[in-house]
Design a protein that fits this description.
alpha/beta, Rossmann fold, six-stranded parallel beta sheet, four-stranded parallel beta sheet, 14 helices, 15% strand, binds uridine-5'-diphosphate
């Protein structure tokens, strides 16, 4: 696997460390559990990293020298991908592989280079598409200008493209990806860590209801709409609800984080600051307890390539109110495991959330259904089996073509 900026060893919750890191770490481990040896190639972003680290039995993380051995924002990494590809090809001569799997478009650039040079098939998972990002972020999109064109090439040239949700399949079709090479393999959730039963964490409850939001503190995650919803419906359960926002910089850096300050300012302006608690980044291992403490988990991004957090909440047996975008359309079953609302619409969010907070039996029923859905369709075991199936399809075709 190639994951240029998202190391499976990185701390989560920062601006550039999120779902992809989790995905690569767990998918690699679950494939190893099925008997495969997995090498994960990621960029060296600190001088003192060892050349290789064993993540778990069967998974080795290899640090590739490409660009400065320091943290570089992911949108500035493209110029280093050619060097990454060359180094990757050299590593592959020493650590032979059957197939390459690139995560994110820039890994695709490096992987394509290496795959051609050593003659291996490659599979591409984009995790996010530049075309979607540009549509939603417009001038604020800091991706390299060539991103959409490069993604279009990669989608056409990869031996297989794994879309993480159905919504991405139509986006890939719009890019002209050959439909017989695209298949859906979703992201997964650790259903042994995220469970309904277990310790409940977080600050002491001060209100009757608790809503939890987890994510990087970036505007498009839609935390603003949740803060606004809290202030709506003064006579509904929302008026007796506290909001915990987990993620972003570590707690002691929130004071210098622009988005945290913006959200705090908004909460003050709306008179809900005493019920809005920004807690900063939390260790991944502490999340299950914090999610269990929620009556409802809210995830209302403006857009979302997949969204692992809603799945984590579901695996903890919590109902999710989410926006009807991207991967949430596949994970949250509206009216069965949670509710889907239009994005960027605090009024619709309040209308779905208020009555749900009043209705404990419905929350419990949805939570039970959510756990079942997460286990049945989204465990890493299941995701690894589907990934293996995709790999086998590619290898079979490559063998046929070689005849
Ligand atoms: N996460 C975490 N601690 C935090 C914030 C996030 O462990 O403080 C994890 C979260 O549990 C999830 C991932 O980071 O596994 C975020 O993935 P998601 O797909 O929801 O969003 P992304 O960050 O990729 O946009």
């Amino acid at each position: 696997m190639v994951s240029e900026h998202a190391s499976p060893l990185a701390a989560l919750g920062g601006v550039d460390a999120g779902g992809q890191n989790v995905h690569v770490a767990h998918l690699a481990a679950a494939l190893a559990a099925r008997g495969h040896a997995v090498d994960v190639y990621t960029r060296r972003d600190a001088v003192d990293l060892p050349p290789q680290v064993e993540l778990v039995d069967g998974v080795t993380v290899v640090h590739v020298d490409a660009g400065p051995p320091a943290e570089v924002p992911k949108d500035a990494l493209l110029p280093h991908m050619e060097a990454f590809g060359r180094r990757l090809a050299e590593h592959l001569l020493e650590r032979p592989a059957d197939l390459l799997h690139a995560h994110f478009w820039m890994s695709g650039v490096a992987t394509r280079e290496a795959a051609r040079s050593v003659g291996l098939p490659w599979v591409q998972t984009f995790h996010a598409l530049g075309s979607v990002k540009r549509r939603h972020q417009g001038a604020e999109d800091t991706s390299p200008p060539s991103r959409v064109a490069v993604e279009t090439e990669l989608a056409a040239e990869a031996d297989a493209v794994l879309a993480t949700c159905r919504d991405e399949v139509s986006e890939l079709a719009d890019l002209g990806a050959p439909h017989d090479r695209v298949r859906v393999v979703p992201c997964g959730v650790d259903v042994d860590l995220f469970t309904p039963d277990g310790p409940v964490g977080g600050p002491e409850r001060r209100e009757q209801h608790r809503v939890v939001v987890v994510g990087r503190l970036v505007e498009r995650k839609g935390v603003e709409e949740v803060v606004r919803a809290l202030a709506l419906g003064p006579t509904s359960a929302l008026a007796r609800t506290e909001l915990l926002v987990l993620g972003g910089p570590p707690a002691d850096h929130l004071a210098i984080d622009a988005e945290a300050q913006r959200l705090r300012g908004l909460a003050e302006e709306l008179g809900v600051a005493d019920r809005t608690h920004l807690l900063g980044r939390v260790d991944h291992s502490d999340l299950p307890a914090l999610l269990r403490g929620a009556d409802v988990v809210v995830a209302t991004p403006w857009y979302e390539p997949f969204g692992i957090v809603p799945l984590e909440a579901m695996a903890c047996g919590r109902p999710v109110v989410g926006s009807a975008v991207g991967g949430l359309l596949d994970t949250v079953e509206d009216g069965v495991t949670g509710a889907l609302v239009p994005p960027r619409d605090a009024v619709a969010l309040a209308a779905a959330l208020g009555p749900l907070l009043e209705d404990a039996p419905r929350r419990e029923a949805w939570g039970r259904a959510a756990r079942e859905r997460a286990v049945a369709g989204f465990s890493w075991r299941e995701v690894a089996a589907r990934t293996e199936d995709a790999y086998e399809g590619v290898l079979a075709r490559t063998r046929l073509e070689a005849l």
